[in-house]
Fold these 4 entries.
Entry 1:
Amino acid sequence: MTGNTPAVRPARPFFSSGPCAKRPGWTPEALNSALLGRSHRSKPGKAKLKDAIDRTKALLGIPADYRVGIVPASDTGAVEMALWSMLGPRPVDCFAWESFGEDWVTDTVKQLKIKDARVIKAGYGDLPDLTQADPTHDIVFLWNGTTSGVRVPDADWIAKDREGLTICDATSAAFAMDLPWDKLDVTTFSWQKVLGGEAAHGMLVLSPRAVARLESYTPPWPLPKIFRMTKGGKIVDGIFEGETINTPSMLALEDYLDALTWAEGIGGLKGLIARSQANLGVLDRWVRECGWADFLAREQGARSNTSVCLKIVDPWFQGLGEDAQADAAKKIATLLEKEGVALDIAGYRSAPPGLRIWCGATVDKADLEALTPWLDWAWAKVKAA
């Protein structure tokens, strides 16, 4: 570690965990074909929306009998559509180990007041005991904890012969991790995460079992229009063919289509995962050498390859009070932003003081390699102050 100013700067200092970095080489000209000034319900409008659905399904290897729809309000909207439309007929197991998992606990326990809801929790840096999942219950969980950098390592804990539904928030996992679709009944994600798209649009993936729940169960609470996926006891097919519930941004849609084209051109899902894994490798090597930082995720197999969260383990830092630790971590992020070498890498507000560095596929490995000396530089500055 040195206080000398590093000579090389990241070419693209965009390491935000959402909205995430645009794909390499992106320029506004990528949006020139956007269907602006036209209805999303016009023939070409619906064709573009269906194209996004079909290509998403192909890229992620989603089974043919699963349905994929574009829904309002980003990943949050997609998750809440599922929770408010499907929970109720069975007990629910909610697994939470960071802030967004806690949000779904709030929906399930405090808002919907589901009877026999169990909350299985762990603190930041750990996974809860996933083996407590009851196959007769519905299960609500995240695949990857965006604010903790802790992911589930596999789906072995989910029963193949389960009776309940699995509802998985996969927003910072889709396009970066290999999701086992046979274990997932409802899966959600958003455009602005791993592919670096723009905000406000969510994706909802439903298995045949999830569709059966929608068509056989009517929740006892009122459903707002943007949550309604059935009519007359049957699923509204149009939602999953490009006929969105509300008006989407055709500009954001064009950007997502551009990101899909880029992803297809680098080898599809395997290429995306390889880029994310290589990026994680850069930070893993640096952590082993730096001496002052470590992964917030304690278990190596549970470490995210997208939202990489770091804690500060230096004894000087550990000796500070809680407020002083938060202030020191914030100063590191502020110094790097002021230098223009790393934007938006402060840890999440409710997470332990530290840093959060996005390593998804739209980030270039060379930029992370250029960043690590700057991390040491900023730490040395803060510690010496």
Note: The longest strand covers residues 67-72.
Entry 2:
Amino acid sequence: MKYLLLILTIAVFTSIVLGFVLDVDYTEKLIGFGVAGLFFIVFPLFSYIHWKDKKVEDYMLTKENLDKMRENQKRKK
């Protein structure tokens, strides 16, 4: 899955760069497909790969997590 993400990222950035460098009729399409692929395919895949085994509750600002943060601040002082 990580290799697929790497290949897609390289393909998307190549499409964007070629859209700026080449002087053909479909340069706008190359840039557009590159940007769309980046935001609709690469970013969600990246987020899924790096967040699939984590608990979302650990990163939310709930009362319990705020209390833990305050305790850690007091321990450091």
Note: The chain is about 75% helix and 0% strand.
Entry 3:
Amino acid sequence: MTSAAKPERRPANPNFSSGPCAKRPGWSPDVLAGAPLGRSHRAKVGKARLAEVIERSARILGLPEGWRLGIVPASDTGAVEMAMWSLLGPRGVEMLAWESFGSGWATDVMKQLKLKDARLLEADYGALPDLDRIDWDCDVVFTWNGTTSGVCVPDAEWISADRGGLAICDATSAAFAMPLDFDKLDVVTWSWQKVLGGEAAHGMLALGPRAVERLESHTPDWPLPKIFRMTKGGKLNEGIFKGETINTPSMLCVEDALDGLRWAEQVGGLEGLVARSRANLAAIERWVEGSDWAGFLAEDPAIRSSTSICLKVTDPWFAEQPEDAQAALVKALVARLDAEGVAYDIGSYRDAPAGLRIWGGATVETADIEALLPWLDWAYGALKAESRAAA
């Protein structure tokens, strides 16, 4: 390839990080002016704000009747850990992993909880494990979308409707950007800082009726930290799912989450959010189709994420370079775009293959994606030319 000319057009918003993600278009700190700061979250005003986050989230996502939704500590990680530590044990466990977060949950189950009847089904970055091998008499823990691999499940058809175990789904980079079939799920978790661009530290935990039944009939064999406890006297602590949080939440973050939810309603609710994210992926797909150096880590379009869009370098010249030189070139590309102020935080996750990761969630404007892509060509072409000249 020849070195592309330096583009003139720049993204209006260069924030393409996969978490915390770009704020919604038009956001400013002014939207936080009404936050009830210096007030107890247990006061009437605090409870009302927390309950509003729960109610708006459930309505936008289409959470079915009978499901509970609560705000929990420690982001999506806290929500997943609460579910695993509280629910697992009565049955065997199938752990699905095709990127770093799924692998992390598997480590927690096998090495921290030390469950003996646990099996890991895994795949390399860019692929899914064989979903037909899953034993649905077991509990199954999986990510809907692999944030660090750009690989998502294609749908929920592979989940058994008459499963004996629970389907426990980490949906943090899928919720609000991909349709979730709650009839095929029992536990769903996410955080505020992904698709709606909220601030960090708080997680959301949704429990279906079968998960509630498990909580009320099963006592784990291990001690449960206070922030994981969801029952009192053998019954579900319903207060958690009405905004009575286990620990003290940031009312600034709550106000910001409400702003994101109101914006989501303005752009068409779930349907509008999904469409915005898919448009971002489509823009990159058009570019990749004509690229002579870049491709998707997820080669199969059916499992390709529209949020955490992961790219690899496919240039034959690049493949001939030593592995450390490949990593150095990608790192230099990311640094050059950062220095130009056109793209921040687009390097692949530290555990993933060397490449790029561009957030395509609903808060990112497609016009900014389209403005970014010529800069990728420019940076790669320039660095390749420099590398060849130095050889």
Note: The chain has a mean pLDDT of 97.
Entry 4:
Amino acid sequence: MSTTILKRCGTDKTFCKWLISNKELLQNRHYYIDVIIRAYRTKKPLEQLQSYKEAKLRLIHDSSLTPIKELFKGKDLERFFDYMLKQQTNPNTYLDYLKACQNLGLDMTEDKNRFPHDFKRWHDIRIDQYATKKAIEDEEKRKELYIQFAAVAEKYLSLQHAKRSAFVCIIAKSPADLIREGEALHHCVGRMNYDQRMVREESLIFFIRNKQEPDTPFVTVEYSISQKKVLQCYGEHDHKPSSDVLHYVNKVWLPYANKTLKQIAA
């Protein structure tokens, strides 16, 4: 159905042969037309180029990832995607690392800072350095923060959910809750500025628990109030949750939360 593909087939016999040799791959899933043309020209794997394209589109449409888009442009963007894959991490986790580095005044044009050899190790180091610096700067502000945080949690308390499911959803009620969650699951929710985002009512943090173990950290969710969608949903070490948890979050809790949010606004 693509005139671009048809025109090239009419003028390039080698391209026709390439299509035939990749017939099985092309039939198994949808590929963007520019991905197909580029794979033919560069001889790079279709799957790899498709992954680049999809990741790039996610970056383009997610305004929260703008700092990454500004740092990595052109060929550097593909290098960034390769790095994410090799280090087994994701753009949101890298964004936390990037913000910490920038706050610490590090030069992010240097490869040793942009692409540390062991990302997880240096991510944790930079986050801890950032947290220490932030704690010193904000020591006097913490008392007021706790009061404001509790008020926001109380306002959106009705978004909690514990009906007809193996899971329950609990709202974070204090910055200390975020710290405990982050330490237990080894991610950044307690060490970056998620408490500030909650106080400003930009996003809310919820904890997904097994109903039989409501006090045991399991999965953490960041929910956007303005966009009415889940921004992040990760388990231990930023791992993607199981399909049953994702179904609960996206198909059970999210519709309930959005409906309840309208009632709060009204």
Note: The chain has 14 helices and four strands.
